[in-house]
Specification:
Mean pLDDT: 85
Shape: elongated
Low-confidence stretches: 1-12
Structural class: alpha/beta
Strand order of the largest sheet: 2-3-1-4-5-6
CATH topology of the largest domain: Rossmann fold
Largest sheet: 6 strands, mixed
Number of strands: 6
Distance between the termini: 73 Å
Order of helices and strands: HHHEHEEHEHEHHEH
Length: 242
Amino acid sequence: MSFCPGQQDAGSRPLPARSRFALALAPTLSARQRARLRPWLVALAVAGLAAALVALALHQIPLRARIALEADVRARLSSAPVLAIGDSITYQAAPRSLCGEEVLNAAVPGDKIDDLVSRAGSLESHLQPARVVIAIGANDAVKPKHSIAEWRTLYREIISRFPGSQLVLVEVNPVEHGRSPYADMLDQTYVAQQNAAIRAIGAETGAVVVPAPQSVSTTDGIHPSRAGALLWRARLFSAACR
């Protein structure tokens, strides 16, 4: 079967619009003009190939790692004065602005306190936020690998990465047991100890503490429903924007 410029066989990808335009234009040009155009066509092809390879590479990166990478890139480019870090609850519920200031949501679903310890320094150096919202802990309460004393030490280490920032510490939401197998794996006693540690650290550092509600509407016992996310934000606004 003959193949014409710009034609697409059943297994091929469509050519980018700029490449189709250049191929369509080529027959109308003189040999000298085509010679001048050739380096640009090569550059377009190389750029298109590079973009395709980057897209393929990103697609093959696990979702959590890709979200963390995107957060790091956005921190490098952003000038937002407020940084929000945490897990999937923060990722879902953090507002776009807090007290009238833009928020960069750098939360990563599945993150535990160790993950924030490893990422906090990089985020601070790129963004240098005036205010940091820290909302972490639910995933650490699933078959906890840290004693509460160790967890408290790691939490303080995160805080130490933001020496010039006003801190807003969000307590861990209560769990609705019986809603999902994962929710049933969370140790509610450990959550209570986490929240006591957060309150103690807030008192030590002068940070704003956002208290956990008595109950919360969720989709699976852990992740807030739309109403639960609205409550999460309302608690944050009430504590941070006095």
